[in-house]
Design a protein that fits this description.
The chain has six helices and no strands. It is mostly helical. It folds into two domains: 82 residues, no CATH class; 32 residues, no CATH class. It is elongated. Keywords: Coiled coil.
Length: 154
């Protein structure tokens, strides 16, 4: 259930940030024809080595890269007077919220020492997991609803 929810939230957050970046791209494209605005780049980029044991970890990094692009473009549009400070802050807050939602969800992860069969069969491990975390979504339990990165069912 957790992986499915995380994958869904990552997808939604990426769409939100992509939409905000596209709004800024539109603003930056709508300058008078004779004016050319150079591409935005950080004056002191930081290169960080990234290693994840999960494809969803890398998707989280891609989300951060998208937010970085949003920040750079928001400051560029503000610098050139194409958006007001309030709009810049609104864009940064919306993008930051999308990223923070992923962080909050990832921090809420709890290991469940029970398998699908434990829950289906009503074993002691299954009962303990249900009492602690509630009954899983039936579609998740049956395998209908799964993260595209989940291991195959046995």
């Amino acid at each position: 259930m957790f992986l499915f929810n995380l994958e869904e939230k990552l997808s939604k957050s990426k769409q939100e940030i992509d939409l905000l970046v596209e709004q800024l791209n539109e603003v930056l494209r709508n300058v008078p024809g004779d004016i050319i605005i150079s591409g935005v780049a950080s004056t002191s980029p930081v290169n960080i080595g990234v290693h994840s044991r999960s494809p969803l970890g890398y998707k989280s990094v891609w989300l951060l890269v998208g937010y970085d692009e949003l920040v750079l473009k928001a400051f560029q549009a503000f610098h050139y007077g194409l958006i007001a400070r309030a709009r810049r802050d609104e864009l940064l807050n919306a993008g930051g919220h999308a990223v923070r939602q992923i962080c909050a969800l990832a921090q809420s992860y709890k290991t469940v020492p029970a398998t699908r069969s434990d829950i289906s069969s009503g074993s002691q491990k299954g009962k303990e997991a249900i009492s602690r975390y509630g009954m899983p979504d039936p579609d998740v339990l049956s395998g209908k609803k799964r993260s595209s990165f989940s291991a195959p069912l046995k």
